[in-house]
Design goal:
- The complex is a heterodimer.
- Chain A folds into 2 domains: 116 residues, Dihydrodipicolinate Reductase, domain 2 (2-Layer Sandwich), CATH 3.30.360; 122 residues, no CATH class.
- Chain A has 8 helices and 9 strands.
- Chain A is of the alpha+beta class.
- In chain A, strands 2-1-3-8-9 form a 5-stranded mixed sheet. A 4-stranded mixed sheet of chain A has the order 4-7-5-6.
- In chain A, helix 6 packs parallel to helix 8.
- Chain B starts with a strand and ends in a 5-residue tail after the last helix.
- Chain B is of the alpha/beta class.
- The chains are: A alpha+beta, B alpha/beta.
- Chains A and B meet through helix 3, helix 6 and helix 8 of A and helix 5, strand 9 and helix 6 of B.
């Protein structure tokens, strides 16, 4: 049986990995986009990003001082027996990682604004639990900095408006400008209900940049939105250029005939994520 | 080596900078963000003094990630934070303190850019997320003031060497790299 210590250790390892190293698909995308730029200021932004990634990896230091808030997606098999509370264990792991890595203590009470100093607080870190059949246990982690998270948007649009989704996405990316640390990954949740759309938008950020959408219509929409967003000339860090987004990821759910919820969730260029899965009795951290 | 600014800066030096120039800073910079801005303004409004003189100074929008060791503070990652959060306080803060350069990311509001030009203050962009690159240019922590605001929101006084590359993104002539670019672009579906 999986032990609490093993589970916790895995989560700390995931946080360490995510805070200090970017997934290969993101690094490759940054390198590819750098080659496309013609303006010196835009090229310089990419040079700084890539140099910073090398330094962070070499020194084991967090890429960005805003180590964000950890968002966990956990798939838990109903047939799996655990002798510990996995959510409590996640929280303990976040506290441990905050001291060990270290992570910046970002979590405060929303009213008093008093910092808990542990990155754990009422209802946080976010743990989105999904029950699945069998004995599966999978954890996906996103680290979200405030610069990008603050530009999350929810629109309840008119279903009859043909280009409403495109306009909502471009409006958000355009209005955000350089603030969310572009080039961003744009997660878009279409349909469902207000909260389902938000969840889809966030979950869309887990998909690697080199994996196309399985739904062909959504894949075409993603391509169209990527091109249009990159035509806004916001550029890396908002200083102008051809790269405003690394990709647009759209996920959908069915919705009410009278509704069209569209949620948008931006991730900064330092798109930090990590995953782990239970294999036998051990958790294996996937190095993306 | 790129052009170095050595604070304290005078109006003439700041006036020579043009949007798109690349510079570095050597000397002293002080971090400040939301809570420190609010406290500084409150103190200066009521005729009190700040614990340090910021005239001609360089203020860095940053909440560093640091570790306290036996030898003192070790800054691990210290990239810029979003400057636009300070939009409503920016002009008053610069006006009352006499700061000559701000370092941040994402730019300031259009009206704030105009105010900065009037006050003779430039805005320098450091690449967001490049926290380790920034930390490498920080050669020492001189002091940490207002620690009661929390480590992230406190005033960190850093001694830096060739801190950069910094892009002059808003100059003292009212040019703004952020808005000009966006106005010149435009989306096409």
């Amino acid at each position: 049986m999986l032990s609490e210590a093993e589970f916790r250790g895995t989560v700390v390892e995931m946080l360490q990995w995510a805070a200090t190293t970017l997934p290969k698909d993101v690094v490759d995308a940054l390198k590819r986009c750098k080659r496309r730029e013609r303006e010196y200021v835009a090229i310089l932004q990419f040079e700084c990003m890539l140099k910073n990634l090398e330094l962070a990896k070499r020194l084991g230091a967090p890429i960005c001082q805003d180590t964000g808030i950890p968002i966990f997606f956990m798939e838990l098999g109903t047939g799996l027996k655990l002798d510990f509370d996995p959510i409590a264990a996640l929280k303990r792991a976040v506290k441990e990682a905050t001291l060990a890595i270290p992570l910046r203590a970002n979590i405060v009470d929303p009213i008093s604004r008093v910092n808990t100093k542990t990155n754990v607080g009422e209802g946080m870190p976010a743990v989105h639990l999904e029950l699945v059949r069998g004995k599966r246990l999978r954890i996906d982690l996103l680290l979200k900095g405030a610069g990008a998270e603050n530009w999350s948007r929810l629109y309840m649009l008119r279903p009859s408006d043909g280009e409403a989704i495109e306009r909502a996405v471009l409006l958000t990316v355009g209005e955000a400008g350089g603030q969310p640390c572009p080039p961003t990954i744009v997660g878009v949740g279409v349909g469902g209900s207000a909260e389902v759309a938000c969840m889809l938008a966030k979950k869309a950020l887990l998909r690697p940049l080199d994996r196309p959408n399985k739904d062909r219509r959504l894949a075409r929409l993603e391509l169209r939105l990527t091109r249009a967003a990159n035509g806004l000339d916001i550029g890396p860090m908002g200083l102008g250029g051809k790269t405003t987004v690394l990709g647009v990821h759209v996920e959908k759910a069915a919705c009410h005939t009278a509704s069209l919820p569209v949620a948008i969730d931006l991730q900064c260029w330092a798109a930090r994520r990590a995953s782990a899965e239970l294999v036998g009795n051990r958790m294996r951290v996937e190095v993306p | 080596m790129r052009k170095q600014l050595r604070p304290p800066l005078v109006e003439k030096q700041v006036g020579q900078l043009k949007v798109g120039d690349i510079v570095g800073i050597t000397g002293k910079i002080v971090t400040a963000r939301d809570k420190a801005y609010a406290r500084a303004i409150e103190l200066l409004r009521s005729g009190k003094r700040l614990p340090l003189d910021l005239r001609g100074g360089v203020v860095y929008h940053c909440g560093p990630l640091s570790r306290k060791t036996k030898e003192g503070w070790q800054v691990l990652s210290a990239g810029p934070t979003t400057s636009a959060r300070l939009n409503s306080m920016q002009a008053e803060f610069v006006g009352r303190t006499g700061v000559r350069a701000l370092i941040g990311k994402g730019g300031v509001g259009e009206d704030v850019a105009g105010e900065l030009a009037r006050l003779g203050c430039v805005y320098l962009a450091f690449t967001g997320g490049a926290g380790v690159l920034a930390a490498r240019a920080i050669k020492g922590v001189q002091k940490v003031l207002w620690q009661d605001l929390g480590a992230t929101e406190a005033l960190w006084v850093f001694r830096v060497q060739d801190f950069g590359p910094l892009v002059v993104a808003v100059d003292a002539w009212g040019n703004n790299l952020y808005t000009r670019k966006i106005q010149a672009g435009g989306g096409h579906l």
